[in-house]
């Protein structure tokens, strides 16, 4: 009778997997499955299950890969292999790593073990079923001194964004590997071009020269899609670096070398979705591990459904649970085991690689409550850590909702310290794409963007940028591809409130290879300095001077803002503290302009009107009216 009951349970599991197989067919762009194919799969799984019941348990994976003493986050191991359900667990030695509890998944090939970590050491975890057993080593390390209280990136930093595969190829021997589905093809615009960890290491001095103080590479974890794998946002293994980039050890070494150069390091994390080639796609721990629909369904991209008082549950579910793309299955963070898995995953990489912060991809697509709990868990482990979420929406009210401690009507708190300032990015780009004529065009767009700062819980925790790996280069956007306008954009990024982010190549004014080809056309390698035009070299000199100044100027990091509207395509603002002020004037017009100094008396009167031109070192007297050339920025440092 007991055997009969066991058989029924196993058949239920097989039927669930037969259903999942039909869902997985969506990954190959097939939205229906013939009945006879379902019966074939069902029969095959029955045979496999019969063999499974008589086989010895076998451990293939243990995640997290290791752990540490004195961690705040509880440790739950996910073991994956063959026939692990209901196994008896023992650990030797028995006095430093204690089993608190264990539970099965719906698949018999997983086991979750809750552990009490008491001391560092190497342990043997053994699973036993009847007279058959399997063992695996597991390491508990001593936690790095001061790890919990590590500092992070802030508005004193400048973040340098790297599109990892398209940056610098430092090691051509790892471009095409047998174990990876997609080979390198530098002639194919959507292919892998060979950028890697060694290329980033080789470029650290250049990154320092740009004035950057932190690095954000796009994901370096395994992405084993057969095509379009170069972007890295379809993860196939959350605990291993893609071998075409390097190894886990190389990644950790890269972070250490960056620290030696005074550079902080961010990891780009994607908890919203995995890749279609992730190893668990062949056998989910639970049926609800992945969000699924009867037919392939893409997200509706309606972030506002999360806070719209008139929104339907249907729209909310499509935003949070439908798939980002065919190759990017949507993770269900409402599953408690998956949520714990992702908490530990983030913490493991921070601790293992000694990271300084995180960037989170597609944040508003994540189930809202679990996403907030995920951030909370990371901050409970590292109270000073900064996490910036991609919140690609506008206007400002829509972005502000997602920042930690926002004044939301529904009481929702994301616990996400920083958000990406897409509204200001779009305002700057739109202001410079034409001559700025019209009542509310040109620099008035930028003025209006900053006028929304009252909506944010903390405007200093906005990531400020004018380009990234998903947007055309700023030189593509500005009118006539004029480097003078690029300088205006960079000036605003360097001197406004928030955390500046620059996109690799923009320091040289690079343009997309082919903007008609979408993202692939703009994600291009960093050019060699010797191949630059004289105009590009001049722009780079401007860039290093500008961001070099910002690196050492606390008034820019912490100063308040007072700005002045201009209807003539100019923009003036002060960043100020009790000690001094930075005056910035942007002439985005194509005519020479007189700076109306008398308009600024309410703040200028508090400082000595004779200051220093930050870009030239010359003395500037702001007491009389000044003229400024077309398409020119002015930055003046003032003292009391």
Q: Could you explain the architecture of this structure?
A:
By secondary structure, the protein is an alpha/beta fold. About 30% of the residues lie in helices and about 20% in strands. Helix 7 packs parallel to helix 8 (about 370-380), helix 10 packs antiparallel against helix 11 and helix 13 runs parallel beside helix 15 (about 535-550). The N and C termini lie far apart (about 90 Å). The model is unreliable at about 1-45 and about 45-55 (pLDDT under 50).
Task: Lay out the secondary structure.
Blueprint (H helix, E strand, L loop, with lengths): L1 H23 L10 H20 L3 E6 L3 E2 L6 E8 L5 E5 L4 E8 L5 E8 L3 E9 L2 E10 L17 E4 L34 H6 L1 H6 L4 E4 L3 E2 L14 E5 L6 H13 L3 E6 L43 H9 L14 H18 L3 E4 L7 H14 L4 E4 L6 H5 L17 E3 L1 H11 L10 H8 L11 E3 L9 H4 L5 H13 L3 E5 L15 H4 L11 H18 L2 H5 L1 E5 L5 E7 L3 E8 L5 E3 L5 H4 L5 E4 L5 E3 L4 E3 L3 E8 L1
Parallel strand pairs: 2-8, 9-10, 9-18, 10-13, 13-14, 14-15, 15-16, 16-17, 17-18
Antiparallel strand pairs: 1-3, 3-6, 4-7, 5-6, 7-8, 11-12, 19-20, 20-21, 21-26, 22-25, 23-24, 23-26
Helix pairs in contact: 1-2, 7-8, 10-11, 13-15
């Amino acid at each position: 009778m007991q055997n009969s009951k066991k058989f029924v349970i196993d058949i239920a599991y097989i039927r669930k997997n037969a259903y999942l197989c039909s869902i997985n067919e969506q990954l190959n762009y097939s939205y229906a499955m013939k009945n006879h194919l379902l019966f074939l799969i069902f029969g095959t799984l029955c045979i496999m299950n019969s063999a499974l019941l008589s086989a010895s348990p076998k451990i293939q994976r243990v995640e997290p890969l290791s752990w540490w003493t004195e961690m705040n986050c509880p440790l739950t191991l996910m073991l994956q292999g063959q026939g692990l359900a209901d196994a008896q667990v023992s650990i030797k030695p028995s006095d430093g790593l204690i089993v608190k509890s264990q539970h099965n998944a719906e698949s018999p090939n997983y086991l979750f073990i809750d552990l009490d970590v008491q001391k560092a050491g190497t342990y043997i975890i053994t699973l036993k079923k009847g007279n058959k057993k399997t063992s695996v080593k597991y390491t508990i390390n001593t936690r790095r001194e001061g790890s919990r209280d590590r500092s992070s990136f802030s508005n004193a930093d400048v973040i340098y964004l790297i599109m990892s595969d398209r940056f610098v190829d430092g090691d051509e021997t790892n471009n095409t590997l047998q174990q990876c589905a997609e080979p390198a093809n530098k002639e194919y615009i959507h292919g892998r071009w060979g950028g890697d960890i060694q290329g980033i290491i080789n470029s650290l001095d250049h990154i320092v020269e740009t004035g950057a103080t932190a690095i954000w590479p796009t994901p370096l974890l395994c992405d084993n899609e057969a095509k379009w794998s170069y972007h890295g946002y379809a993860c196939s293994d959350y605990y291993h670096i893609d071998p075409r980039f390097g190894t886990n050890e190389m990644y950790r070494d890269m972070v250490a070398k960056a620290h030696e150069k005074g550079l902080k390091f961010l990891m780009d994390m994607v908890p919203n979705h995995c890749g279609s080639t992730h190893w668990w796609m062949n056998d989910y721990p639970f049926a609800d591990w992945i969000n699924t629909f009867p037919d392939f369904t893409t997200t509706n991209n309606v972030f506002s459904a999360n806070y719209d008082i008139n929104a339907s549950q249907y729209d909310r579910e499509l935003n949070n649970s439908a798939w980002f793309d065919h190759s990017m299955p949507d993770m269900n963070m409402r599953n408690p085991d998956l949520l714990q898995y992702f908490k530990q995953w983030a913490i493991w990489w921070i601790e293992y690689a000694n990271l300084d912060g995180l960037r989170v991809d597609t944040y508003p697509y994540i189930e809202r409550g679990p996403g907030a709990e995920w951030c909370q868990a990371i901050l409970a482990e590292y109270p000073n850590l900064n996490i910036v979420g991609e919140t690609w929406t506008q206007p400002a009210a829509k972005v502000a909702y997602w920042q930690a401690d926002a004044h939301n009507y529904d009481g929702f708190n994301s616990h996400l310290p920083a958000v990406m300032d897409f509204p200001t990015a779009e305002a700057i780009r739109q202001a410079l794409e034409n001559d700025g004529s019209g009542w509310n065009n040109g620099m008035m767009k930028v003025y209006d963007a900053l006028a929304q700062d009252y909506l944010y819980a903390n405007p200093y925790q906005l990531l400020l940028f004018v380009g990234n790996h998903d947007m055309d280069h700023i030189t593509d956007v500005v009118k006539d591809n004029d480097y003078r306008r690029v300088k205006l954009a960079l000036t605003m990024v360097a001197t406004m409130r928030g955390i500046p982010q620059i996109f690799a190549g923009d320091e040289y004014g690079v343009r997309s290879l082919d903007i008609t080809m979408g993202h692939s056309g703009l994600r291009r390698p960093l050019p060699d300095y010797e191949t630059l035009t004289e105009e590009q070299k001049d722009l780079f000199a401007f860039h290093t001077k500008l961001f070099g100044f910002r690196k050492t100027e606390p008034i820019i990091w912490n100063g308040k803002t007072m700005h002045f509207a201009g209807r003539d395509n100019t923009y003036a603002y002060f960043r100020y503290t009790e000690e001094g002020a930075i005056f910035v004037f942007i002439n985005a017009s194509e005519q020479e302009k007189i700076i109306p100094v008398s308009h600024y008396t309410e703040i200028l009167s508090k400082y000595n009107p004779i200051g220093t031109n930050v870009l030239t070192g010359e003395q500037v007297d702001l007491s009389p009216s000044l003229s400024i050339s077309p398409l020119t920025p002015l930055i003046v440092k003032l003292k009391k």
